[in-house]
Amino acid sequence: MARTRLELIEKIEGEAEVLYEYEGERISFAQIRFLNSRHIEKILQGREPLDALVINPRVCGICGHAHLIATVRALEDCFERVPLSQKAEAVREMTLSLELIQNHFKWFYLTVLPLLGLEAPIQRALEPSRLAGEMIALMAGQYPHNSYAIPGGITGEITPVDLLEFRARLERLKLLFRQSLIDVDLEAFVRCERIEEMLSKEGDLPRAMRHILKRGWERVGQSLDHFIVFGGGGLFTEGKSIGTRLQESINLRYLKEEALEGNAAKRVSYRGRYYETGPLARAMVLKTPLIREAHRRYKDSLFSRILARICEVPRLLRYLETLCDGLDLSEASYTDPGPFPASAQGTGIVEAARGSLIHRVTIEEGRISRYQIVTPTQWNLGNGTRENPCPAQKALMGLQRNDPAELVFKAFDVCSVCTTK
Amino acid sequence: MDRRDALAKMFSAKGVRVNTNRGEAYYDRLKKMMQKRLRELRESPAATKVDIQKVLDAEGLSRRDFMKWASAITAMLMLPASFTPLVAEAAELMNRVPVIWIELQDCAGNSEAILRSDSPTIDELILETIDLEFNETLMAAAGHQAEAHLEETMKTFKGKYLCVVEGSVPIGAGKEWCTIGAKAETFEEHLLKVAGDAAAVVAVGTCATFGGVPAAAPNPTGAVGVQDIVKGKPIINIPACPANPANITGTILHFVLTGQIPELDHLNRPKFAFGYRIHDNCERRAHFDAGEFVEEWGDEGAQNNWCLYKMGCKGPMTFNNCSIVRYNSGTNWPIGAGHGCIGCSEPQFWDKYAYERPMADANIKAPTGGVEKSVDEFGLGLLTAAGVGIAIHAAISATAGKKEEEK
Ligand code: SF4
């Protein structure tokens, strides 16, 4: 006889409900519900297009910058062509990457380590977050919640002094990465393909991964093995991967959103299938050596998921360095794209910390008539059926009573704030 | 009020005029009162076992770093420098005053801002010493366990704790959707419960103070601020999106120091933080006065950090200390990155202020030689309706500030 137990998960951000169904000692099914909604999509209707630049960062205090960049991209997409200087493009990539970095640090220290029962010095999350926040502020004014990106570029002038300050903090971030997460050369780590090599190093990452192995959890939390990445360009490539079978082209035409009764989050699918998005998906599409190796051994388990997320940090840090090096401060910050079209449609895609974030806007008679936001958590924590579950559900199904269910769930890093908008 | 009058008032108003020197007798009295309060606190039981000195030591921060921080806060609270040791002592006694932090309908942006507040000293102070008893963002304990902890803290420190609220309160149709905890209380019930036994309620961020983004038209969830729900309790509003962590720490410290809430303006905002307009202390003010404006993004003015008024800056009608305290440990602030102030600490700014466009039409001839004069040169017919709304509101804020000052 199936027993049903209601488990409330209060997570790092906001609130979700997970209803576990047990068959004996085994979780046979899990339903996921999000309870709260502010209806930002409705609030945007009828407003002037540029207002979205001020409202949308407030969709989420955790990944608000991703929402700003997605908004500006969606608005720019409404124009026939927007001449964007390389500088403006690069600065946006910089602030976006920093948001990812600080999210990764915080998730690892404030969520993962405590759930593993390991010592988790909060300072190791706070200092990098503070640095990343300051670096964003140097370029964008403040963090969280700024509106420095506008169709055609960015509002501010970056001075050589700003850049100097930026670089000084970047050096510190790199040092902190080595001191706290894993003590290896950034360059070498990005190329590393052997799990044993990673495990043999000093640092909180190998410590956590060794602990997972010791507890025998390395195969726990396997999910659909379907990955999707919508945001190409920059550091990531778009594509989908079923297991290791890669397909590069993605067409948003196949994305479908459906409302569910009693759930503030809509369920999304691509060509009728559910996909996992986020760092593991990005690594699978990019064929990151170490993650492919983890996947070969342990499939899309919590081991691979956690490792994939932290492995993004050194790549992002290196990316920041490349962007700084290539920055030509004499370029224009802003190039006038001309008057905003009276009616148009636009899409803006961003790879946020937790995965692909998609904004779609329709403008009619100079006003927003429709705004649609599809968030990463909608993919990962969708509420599917027993026969056809969504990624987190699938990962929970089949777990035994003493398996780390909460960790499996939170390895997807729930963010209900923006999911329910 | 006539539109022209309203505009003229807006630009000539002197702000709230905070009294920063109240005379020796006043400060002597204040000092005695604070000393007594701190003595009492020292004898009362701690809400947490964390010892600030140990925290500092563990992080390798010297006494000097700590005192430097304390003197900055003293200045921010508009106290004479001789109060620095008292402020430092209060910081050490912060663990005697539990803070219960609750999140309602929000984006978690305020707790995010706190998480990267100022130097590590303050992170420690906030996170470990003052003990955010029940911050849903920071808390490691989950679900039922956390709830039991909350109830216990409320009982033990009945009438003594500060209740800090982040997020708005949805009271419209569908509010039963917004529930919290295992007992599925609505946000309103949860707030009333926790605020009920608090010494004072601190509404942090524009959502908690005035409803914020969720309350933007058409306000789908019927969102309101804390002061619309909680009655018969002192309420301190610290608006802005996000609220500046320095202002939150400052308010809490003030409470520890005096057992009272800081002096407030007509919108319940602490005067130490909201006594001036952005415009009063803006680094681009000289350009405003000289009639040098950014007229288009990326133009010569933008490259030379000229005034953003014509690009929609709402600094002249927004009360907050961003221009002085700045954000992210004082690294920068929106105007520093070339974007006008969006007025995020004023009520209903989403509908009145948020527009990414000037409050007056950009075709207006650039005012030259003195501001007040220039107001007459403005082609008032060109003003947008929104612009006038803003102008009148600002004039009212300015007069309201004045009235209080006269009292
Ligand atoms: S930028 Fe804004 S706040 Fe600064 S001087 Fe100009 S109008 Fe005033």
Please outline what is shown here.
With 421 residues, chain A is α+β, with helices and mostly antiparallel strands. Chain A has helices spanning 40-44, 52-55, 64-76, 86-116, 123-140, 160-181, 186-191, 195-199, 204-215, 279-286, 289-298, 302-326, 376-380, 391-396, 405-410, 416-419; strands spanning 2-10, 15-23, 26-34, 149-150, 153-154, 226-229, 239-242, 245-247, 255-258, 267-270, 344-352, 355-364, 367-374. By secondary structure, chain B is α/β, with parallel strands linked by helices.
For this entry, give a set of tags.
heterodimer, A: 421 residues, alpha+beta, 3-stranded antiparallel β-sheet, 16 helices, 43% helix, 18% strand, B: 407 residues, alpha/beta, two-stranded antiparallel ribbon, 18 helices, 42% helix, globular, binds iron/sulfur cluster
Note down, in words, how this protein is organized.
The complex is a heterodimer of chains A (421) and B (407). Chain A has helices spanning 40-44, 52-55, 64-76, 86-116, 123-140, 160-181, 186-191, 195-199, 204-215, 279-286, 289-298, 302-326, 376-380, 391-396, 405-410, 416-419, and strands at 2-10, 15-23, 26-34, 149-150, 153-154, 226-229, 239-242, 245-247, 255-258, 267-270, 344-352, 355-364, 367-374. Chain A is α+β, with helices and mostly antiparallel strands. In chain A, the strands form 5 sheets. Chain A has a 3-stranded antiparallel beta sheet. A 3-stranded antiparallel beta sheet of chain A has the order 6-7-8, covered by helices on one side. In chain A, helix 4 (86-116) packs antiparallel against helix 5 (123-140), helix 4 runs antiparallel to helix 12 and helix 9 (204-215) runs antiparallel to helix 12 (302-326). Chain B has 407 residues and is of the alpha/beta class. Helices cover 42% and strands 7% of the residues of chain B. Chain B has 18 helices and 8 strands. Chain B has helices at 3-12, 24-43, 52-58, 63-76, 84-92, 109-115, 120-129, 143-156, 187-196, 205-210, 245-258, 271-274, 285-289, 300-303, 322-325, 349-352, 371-377, 385-406; strands at 99-103, 162-166, 169-170, 179-180, 185-186, 200-204, 223-224, 235-238. In chain B, a hairpin with a 4-residue loop joins strand 4 (179-180) and strand 5 (185-186). In chain B, helix 1 crosses helix 18 (385-406) and helix 5 (84-92) packs across helix 11 (245-258). Chain B starts with a helix and ends with a helix. Classes of the chains: A alpha+beta (421), B alpha/beta (407). At the A-B interface, strand 1, helix 1, helix 2, helix 4 and helix 5 of A face helix 6, helix 7, helix 8 and strand 4 of B.
